[in-house]
Write a structure and sequence with these properties.
Layout lengths: L3 E5 L3 H12 L5 E5 L3 H15 L7 E4 L10 E4 L16 H18 L4 E4 L4 H12 L6 E3 L3 H15 L6 E2 L2 E2 L7 E2 L5 E2 L2 E2 L4 H21 L4 H15 L4 E8 L10 E9 L2 E5 L6 H20 L6
Parallel strand pairs: 1-2, 1-4, 2-3, 4-5, 5-6
Antiparallel strand pairs: 7-10, 8-9, 10-11, 12-13, 13-14
């Protein structure tokens, strides 16, 4: 039976993700689900035309929850719009909670074996919400989290060190937001530890602000998050078992529990196969706890459905 991916939300991120999955030929079937069906139908038609140039046959349709039934992966990209040049991610929390309440229970009922990949912001909050609303095992719920931030940081360090980004082993952990932190104590390339000098912290600050800068200039972000999400989906569908910094439900991870934050996790066909525990410094552990407190504060402010 073929690999099936459903994408909820046909905005800039959802359609870019669909196109990325198409060009990488990762799925046999892609289903687009959107509150406005006409938008989904238009995007699906355009993607079908593009699929005519692919090396393999893919089925791309627009549909309802019923058409999503039996998906292997369900990607959640739907979001409200918030005015402003670069709104805080937490400003999306209340509105996106409403979207999750509307769609997640029925999507989970239609595809109880699917891995849900959450992209909608604030992603750590929404990952927790999707877990609660779906009723699925926590291993089946993954947020894109700081994977994109880590990629931006690695790209900047790659330019500075003149080393390929794939060879820079470095993670940004915690919240996908203001309280994220660089795990410099375990950052390395070629087995050589990277120093924790000011240049790498400066590059981290640039990476932390990069998304907001893109948002200010073009009004949204889509390409990098599309690629990051496709990387997670590829690791699931291909059972690649890649180690990725993604948002997952923590259970006594350095004393942090019952909140979703980004930590290194092995991702495969069944979702989160294992959470790794790098040897963080006491300062990094404290920053993790600060992230947890911040995200938990937003969850506590939201309705009981969120927490």
């Amino acid at each position: 039976m073929g690999q099936k991916v459903t994408i909820l939300g046909c905005g800039n991120v959802g359609t870019t993700l669909a196109y990325t999955l198409l060009t990488r030929e990762l799925a046999d079937e892609i289903v687009l689900v959107n509150r406005t069906p006409e938008r989904a139908e238009g995007e699906a038609a355009d993607l079908r035309h593009a699929a005519a140039f692919a090396q393999r046959k893919m089925r791309i349709t627009a549909g309802s929850v019923e058409e999503s039934r039996g998906s292997d992966v369900v990607a959640i990209t739907a979001s409200i719009s918030v005015p402003g040049p670069a709104p805080d991610r937490m400003a999306f929390a209340d509105g996106n909670l409403g979207i999750m309440r509307e769609w997640i229970p029925s999507l989970a009922a239609a595809s109880p074996d699917a891995v849900f990949v959450v992209v909608s912001n604030p992603v750590d909050v929404m990952t927790f919400v999707v877990g609660r609303l779906s009723g699925l095992p926590s291993r089946q719920i993954i947020g894109t989290g700081t994977l994109i931030d880590s990629g931006r940081w690695r790209s900047l360090m790659s330019d500075h060190l003149q080393i390929h980004p794939d060879d820079v082993r470095a993670y940004i952990l915690g919240e996908h937001g203001e309280t994220q932190f660089p795990a410099l104590s375990v950052a390395a390339t070629g087995g050589q530890r990277l120093d924790s000098g000011p240049i790498h912290r400066t590059l981290f600050e640039q990476a932390r602000q990069a998304g907001a800068e893109v948002y200010r200039r073009k009004g949204y972000t889509n390409f990098a998050i599309g690629q990051a999400t496709a990387m997670i989906i590829a690791s699931i569908l291909l059972d690649s078992r890649r180690t990725l910094p993604v948002s997952v439900l923590l259970d006594d991870w350095f004393g942090v529990s019952d909140v979703c934050l980004s930590v290194p996790a092995i991702i495969g066909r069944r979702g989160v196969l294992r959470q790794l525990r790098p040897q963080l410094t006491p300062d990094e552990i404290e920053q993790l706890r600060t992230s947890a407190k911040h995200v938990r504060g937003v969850l506590d402010r939201l309705s009981p459905a969120a927490g």
